[in-house]
């Protein structure tokens, strides 16, 4: 049989099977399975499930056939109680390439795989564990482990770029047709060597997506990134990730300090990798996540001059013990873009700025306009810095209904507002006009030493918040009702 021919299937089936001991000349049944995932992808029809039996498959899976709304998705899944491993060991990476590659396809589900070891040591080649690109919709990536995806190229001369990899990447590369209604849920991404790229990225013409309940840890760059303005989509009007939700994820041990793309000396002191980063995205919700022991907990910014991240609602997250700062906003220097019309609400921030570099709990960077910071708990670390805002041009930002506390010297509790430093809560309030309804008090966490930031029954944060309507969301960090009896707590816990 020619390698380009597809073996005939005796009759339509709802399920097909792949086994390391099978043959693509077989019928694809449980008793007579196929050998390669690619053969299954070339045969499967809407509504089919492809069960992959336990074993190691040193193969790529390139999916171009779609399921349908009427017939159902095409599903690729590990066989129940068995582990199917897609292993990239020995496979060559050419260009931007996924071990699982979904191109211009819709109604696709990929779930339950161990995806590993796609690596290169060559510059300008980009290995990806799971790669969704082109245009498509109703795609689900669920309960996979993605790890040991790596680019280990050595930076050339003064150029630190060209060393890139992703764990999971969604690139909307067409316009006006987009990638939309994508769910990435329950996956674990770890031990990724990413260079100047990200663990889980959504970029370009992508809308109406959900990134939920993933575990992302121990990688050398950003955990989750929502990106716009990088010329991924051919029409600039569509080149912006939008209308998505990032919820219920746990992200930790994300740092660029051992990443050559951030400097030649290792470890360096870049501290630039965020647990969750919005770089040019818009109209999206970041809620109910835990982000801790990263360089930056959550950042909403724009790296592109004249371009804005806007309409981002960061709410009901727990952000603690990150090195540089808890939540950052705005361009990281004067040559970057803006953060506008966004909200930082009902978050619990605890002892971030562990470097004691002054980033504090919330860092307000360049070009921040018309944002709201409200209903948060900010518990300072050793630096005693709560909010750091050095730019006098930042305008239209409101800060109120927050709770502040410093376990150390409270008289040295520090706020920097429009490049003026204020020591003590009373001085800060009276001289800035901020936080008229805020309080300075011990929030009464149950056990912060054990990372339990729930509130004791006696907490002054209970029912001390302001109701901002639908912008609060309906759930707190635990999935419980956010508003009870018309009142709302400060912080992530209701």
TrEMBL record:
The keyword Nucleus does not apply. Its main location: secreted. InterPro entries: Choice_anch_Q_dom (IPR059226), DUF1565 (IPR011459), PbH1 (IPR006626), Pectin_lyas_fold (IPR012334), Pectin_lyase_fold/virulence (IPR011050), Polysaccharide_Lyase_9 (IPR052052). It is found in: Secreted. Keywords: Secreted, Signal. Pfam families: DUF1565 (PF07602). Residues 20-60 form the DUF1565 domain. Transmembrane segments: none annotated. The keyword Glycoprotein does not apply. This is DUF1565 domain-containing protein. It comes from Paenibacillus aurantiacus.
């Amino acid at each position: 049989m020619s390698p380009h021919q597809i073996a005939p299937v005796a009759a339509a089936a709802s399920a097909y099977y792949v086994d390391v001991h099978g043959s693509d000349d077989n019928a694809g049944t449980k008793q007579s399975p196929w050998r390669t995932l690619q053969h299954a992808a070339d045969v499967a029809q809407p509504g089919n499930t492809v069960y992959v039996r336990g074993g190691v498959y040193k193969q790529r899976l390139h999916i171009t056939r779609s399921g349908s709304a009427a017939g159902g998705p095409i599903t690729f899944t590990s066989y129940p109680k068995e582990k199917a491993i897609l292993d990239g060991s020995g496979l060559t990476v050419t260009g931007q390439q996924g071990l699982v590659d979904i191109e211009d396809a819709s109604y696709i589900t990929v779930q339950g795989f161990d995806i590993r070891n796609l690596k290169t040591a060559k510059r300008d080649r980009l290995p990806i564990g799971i790669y969704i690109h082109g245009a498509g919709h109703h795609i689900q990536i669920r309960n996979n482990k993605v790890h040991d995806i790596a680019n280990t190229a050595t930076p050339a001369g003064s150029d630190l770029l060209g060393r890139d990899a992703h764990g999971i990447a969604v690139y909307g590369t067409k316009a006006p047709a987009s990638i939309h209604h994508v769910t990435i849920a329950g996956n674990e991404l770890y031990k990724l060597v990413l260079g100047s790229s990200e663990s889980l990225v959504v970029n370009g013409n992508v809308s109406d997506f959900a990134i939920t309940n993933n575990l992302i840890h121990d990688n050398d760059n950003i955990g989750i990134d929502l990106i716009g303005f990088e010329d991924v989509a051919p029409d600039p009007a569509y080149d912006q990730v939008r209308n998505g939700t990032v919820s219920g994820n746990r992200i930790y041990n994300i740092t660029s300090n051992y990443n050559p793309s951030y400097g030649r000396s290792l470890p360096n002191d870049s501290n630039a990798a965020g647990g969750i980063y919005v770089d040019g995205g818009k109209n999206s919700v970041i809620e109910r996540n835990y982000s801790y022991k990263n360089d930056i907990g959550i950042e909403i910014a724009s790296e592109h001059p004249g371009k804005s991240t806007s309409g981002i609602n960061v709410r009901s997250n727990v952000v603690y013990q990150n090195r540089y700062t808890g939540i950052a906003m705005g361009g990281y220097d004067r040559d970057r873009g803006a953060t506008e019309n966004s909200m930082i609400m009902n978050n619990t921030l605890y002892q971030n700025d562990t470097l004691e570099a002054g980033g504090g709990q919330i860092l307000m960077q360049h070009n921040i306009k018309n944002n709201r910071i409200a209903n948060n708990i900010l518990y300072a670390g050793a630096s005693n810095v709560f909010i750091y805002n050095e730019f006098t041009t930042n305008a239209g930002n409101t800060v109120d209904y927050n709770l502040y506390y410093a376990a150390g010297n409270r008289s040295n509790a520090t706020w920097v507002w429009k490049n003026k430093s204020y020591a003590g809560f009373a001085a800060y309030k009276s001289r800035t006009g901020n936080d008229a309804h805020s309080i300075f008090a011990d929030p009464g966490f149950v056990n912060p030493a054990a990372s339990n930031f729930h509130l004791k029954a006696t907490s002054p944060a209970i029912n001390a918040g302001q109701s901002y309507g639908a912008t609060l969301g309906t759930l707190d960090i635990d999935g419980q009702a956010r508003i009870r009896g018309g009142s709302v707590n400060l912080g992530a816990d209701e």
